[in-house]
Design brief:
Blueprint: H1 5-8, E1 11-13, H2 17-36, E2 43-50, H3 51-54, H4 61-69, H5 82-92, E3 94-97, E4 101-104, H6 107-110, E5 111-114, E6 124-131, E7 137-145, E8 151-153, H7 154-159, H8 163-169, H9 179-189, H10 193-203, H11 213-233, H12 248-258, H13 268-285, E9 289-291, H14 301-312, H15 318-338, H16 343-346, H17 352-366, H18 371-383, H19 401-421, H20 430-443, H21 456-459
Parallel strand pairs: 2-5
Antiparallel strand pairs: 1-9, 2-6, 3-4, 6-7, 7-8
This protein binds iron/sulfur cluster.
């Protein structure tokens, strides 16, 4: 599969791309398989396995499965409709499936969190079963949510080619599958990374329709920014029972009030970066609409750094944001293909670490950095997230996730700045850093991979 900028940046709802968007997409995919097979089951049953079982309640995976089976899509669902849909399903225990008709589904009994060993293919496994009136299975599918809202079958998981092959098959003119290949193709062609990515996107654009890449990139940024603005405007307690209060609005108002005055600290830019990131991640925690970047849990870093670029850097502009998104997606695709962007696979280094690397590269490119400086920026940001575990308290994407995005954004700007001060030559290649992340993730015990069985999740008493 060619990893497009629109695969890395997808509009959806919170709180998790792997645990909310992925399951919703998987449920829709199973319904389509039933339609394609001409099947009309009497009942549907679903089991969630591995990390999806252990942190699925906190990440609203059960709600996502229900909404997906009810025909909703992460990109189009209105978060304000969710509660009413869930109440209706709990009351009627019936799905009205387009093209099939009514199917019984009782969320309380037909959706099971299986706390046994994870499925063999991946930490985030789901088994969907279609049953006839006698309870006999007439169709079954095992699907995996592999991070960033991507969903694959066991066969697709096993058959995944390297990124270069996938990109070549998509007809892309610059099929780089690693940072080394990306730099070589840039040197040979004389093109910037954003230009190569742009050419690749154009080659795989839908044929026969009027596809405007810039307009689509603008739509992604507008959705990111709208989420950020909603996060700055809202206050109150986040759902889930931890009683975590939203802080972005209050901090933002303080920052606005300090404009032009003597400030109590000299760290104002970091405060702006932090408040932008927290605004997005508070919206994510509340189940709002946002854009994966590359995941929901890490969705605050890229928008925060883009707002920093737009509001705090001279010459920040729309054209620069498009460059930012294209380059960030190129880096995110390389990381996803060669390691992982999933906290359930490699810990938070794969989520906030990847987001920080993407943002660092995007900012460096938007500020005029060379291809070598861009690769350097991504490497610095990722290197200093290596080993970071995923240990969300209460299985909710709130603590440490919200503040972690703020810190990821600060590191991204620091990394871009350090890279721009150099000439692009550096000690650790980005590919080596990505491979280190992959190996570190393999060595990490499951306690630290989105199961909430270790780290902060067991050392902080919930009250
Ligand atoms: S700790 Fe990191 S990887 Fe884990 S849920 Fe939070 S943001 Fe995602």
């Amino acid at each position: 599969m060619f990893i497009s900028v629109f695969d890395i940046f997808k509009i959806g709802i919170g709180p998790s791309s792997s645990h909310t968007m992925g399951p919703m997409v998987a449920a829709g995919r199973f319904l389509q398989e039933l339609r394609d097979g001409g099947l009309a089951p009497a009942r549907i049953a679903v089991s969630l396995h591995g990390s999806l079982a252990f942190t699925g309640k906190g990440h609203a995976s059960d709600r996502a499965i229900c909404l997906g089976l009810a025909g909703h899509d992460p990109a189009t669902i209105d978060p304000d409709d969710v509660d009413a849909e869930m109440e209706r399903l709990a009351r009627d225990c019936t799905l009205e499936v387009d093209g099939i008709g009514p199917i019984a589904f009782d969320p309380a009994n037909d959706l099971v969190f299986d706390y046994g060993p994870p499925l063999a293919g991946h930490a985030n496994g789901m088994i969907f079963r279609a049953l006839d009136a006698n309870g006999k299975a007439i169709a079954e599918d095992t699907l995996y949510s592999v991070g960033g809202g991507f969903v694959v079958s066991a066969e697709e998981l096993a058959a995944q080619d390297d990124l270069m092959t996938q990109t070549q098959e998509a007809g892309a003119p610059y099929p780089f599958g690693s940072a080394k290949e990306m730099l070589k193709m840039g040197a040979d062609s004389g093109l910037a990374i954003a230009d190569m990515k742009r050419a690749n996107e154009a080659a795989r654009a839908p044929q026969g329709i009027d596809f405007d890449l810039d307009a689509e990139l603008d739509r992604i940024w507008d959705a990111m920014n709208a989420c950020l603005q909603r996060g700055l405007a809202r206050e109150g307690e986040l759902p889930g029972g931890l009683k975590v209060k939203r802080r972005a609005r209050q901090i933002h108002e303080k920052l606005l009030g300090e404009a032009g005055k003597n400030r109590p600290f000299q760290h104002t830019v970091m405060d702006w970066l932090g408040v932008y990131a927290m605004a997005v991640n508070e919206e994510n925690a509340a189940g709002g609409t946002l854009v994966t970047a590359p995941t929901n849990g890490a969705a605050g870093v890229v928008p925060a750094v883009i707002r920093y670029y737009l509001d705090h850097c001279p010459d920040g502009c729309r054209a620069g944001i498009r460059t930012f998104l294209l380059v960030a997606a190129a880096i995110g695709g390389i990381i996803k293909a060669n390691a992982s962007i999933s906290g359930a696979e490699v810990g938070c280094q794969g989520e906030v670490g990847s987001a920080s690397a993407m943002a660092a590269a995007g900012l460096c490119a938007a500020l005029g950095g060379s291809n070598e400086q861009v690769e350097n920026a991504a490497e610095i940001a990722l290197e200093h997230h290596l080993g970071m575990t995923c240990d969300p308290i209460g299985g909710l994407v709130q603590v440490p996730c919200i503040e972690r995005n703020a810190l990821g954004a600060v590191k991204a700007v620091t990394a871009a700045s350090l890279a721009l001060r150099g000439d692009g030559s550096h000690f650790v290649p980005l590919d080596s850093c990505i491979e280190t992340m992959r190996q570190t993730g393999l060595d990490m015990t499951d306690k630290y991979k989105e199961t909430s069985k270790g780290g902060l999740a067991v050392n902080v008493v919930e009250c």
